Amino acid sequence: MAQERIALLDDVDDIRPVTAPAPVYHPGDLSRFHGCVLQDFVPLLQRPWYTYPRLFELNALLLSAMLTQITCGFDGSMLNSLQSVPAWRAFFDEPSGARLALMGNAMIFGVIAFTPVFPYLCERYGRRLPIFGGCAFVALGSLAQGLAGSYRTFVVARFFIGVGLSLSSTASPLLIVECAYPSQRGTMTSLIEPAWPLGSFFAAITTALTAVALSSSNWSWRIPSLMQGLFPLVQCLLVLYAPESPRWLVSKDRYDEAYAILRRYHGSVYDADLIDDATTGTAAAAEDLVQFEMAEICAALAAEQTANLSRWRQFFETGGMRHRFFIVVVLSVMLQFSGMSILSYYLPLVLASMGVTSPNTQLMINLGATIVSIGTSVISGLTVERVGRRPGFLFGFITMLLTMEFWTFLTALAERFPVKFTHSGFLLTLNIAVMYLFQAFYHIVAPLAPTYMVEVVPYSLRSKTTMLTQLVQNLTIMLNNFINPIALAALRWRYYALYCGVLATWTVVAYQWFPETGGKGLEEIAQIFDDIDVDDLTVPHSGQLFKDFDNDEL
User: Fold this and answer.
1) Do domains 62-243 and 318-543 have the same CATH topology?
2) For the domain 318-543, what is the CATH code?
3) Each residue of 29-68: pLDDT tens digit?
4) CA–CA separation, 123 vs 254, rounded Å?
5) DSSP helix/strand/coil, 320
6) Which superfamily, per CATH, for 62-243?
7) What's the CA gap between 167 and 445, in Å, rounded?
8) pLDDT (tens digit, 9 = 90+) per residue, 254-292?
């Protein structure tokens, strides 16, 4: 019997490194899992997570995926800052209009151009290899960008940076959500978002320092351009040692490797002193946790294989799948059509409407906004498992709506009485404070989105979901870039009033169609959208994937 050959793990020292001969996986008697959910087997951590060696190792290696958004944030901030660098403007003959727009949108074109292909690469080659390839592309593109000798080379380099970013961004959330420790899945995936403003902050500091120190040299813009490739190189190094997704390994019939990874990183944090019967409801051993995870993964993938869920049309086959598709598409749009794009791309215009025209003052306000964004994103990511996804969405959209209404009123007041408003330090400070509050509330919502969108879909459609999210968001960004400057000039404060209506709509959408997914295993979330019994998540379907095992061995 398999249970007789599998020794329970008494302590952390029993965990063998993945580099050692991997343990052989046998499902054993799964009937003991009847009526159980993953939460029954996940121990309550009594110490900070970083005091558990394997958990610390896992989270450190998952930085290979989390750092992807740093590059995205770095790019946008760097290009905006370079427009104020005299050497950059002189080298490219004072770019403006269509030439400047092409320099900015070249990366987005790269993202969109090959995005439809990347889900298939993730399904064929796993998660680690696409992250490595995408980051290598970004690093090489950054090298070409920093050493560009012409306008054309600079634009082409940025196009290839977009291609690499698209590939790594497709695979990164998948690696995190499918490898993270069960009780930290939401936190780890949500912390992808704070990397964006952090990258923006690094780019602003780097560009400012080089612009001051090397003001008359082309290296004032070449150094920041080259620095864009630094974080992708770190990712390339880390991902070489990161674990592959156990779910992808099971989908390729590599059960032993998946079992070894779960045993090393999830089972190793289990220790006798962590068992708390009053909290978990059952005294589960490390082997039970790993066996249950494997049973859920195998059962879910068997069911998806039977239903042929890997095709796009499956998004429209059932009510549950249509609900998932609605969440993915609408949430991608909600993040971009929330009013935040006005502050992200047209902050100087917004500040000028308040009477703030000094470049140095605008720079300091922008720096403060970046710090606010980083702080609130990190807080939101760290508390997502405790607060939940649905409450976070509702709180964020409601507070954004209230803040936008007050901001609209102040902006209308500034346009109606410009002299009085400009000379009133209190009103000006109040307007900037409200702007900071709006950014803070937005960055409560933003970290929840990538977590939520990859959680709600089944494994077979997860890579297609990240691709669809990128495509919708980038198309929406391009539409915003076209609409916002025209609407701001024509409507002024009335454009903010329009966003009040939009945010009210998003609040209703979140309340009506965004169910809570926290506290459930990744495979158990299917219960929310589909008519699935809890026992169907482990035992009935798992026999389909275990049909190749010798019954005598079990």
Assistant:
1) yes
2) 1.20.1250.20
3) 677 777 788 888 887 777 888 888 889 999 999 998 989 9
4) 14
5) helix
6) MFS general substrate transporter like domains (1.20.1250.20)
7) 24
8) 999 999 999 889 887 655 344 444 344 333 457 788 888
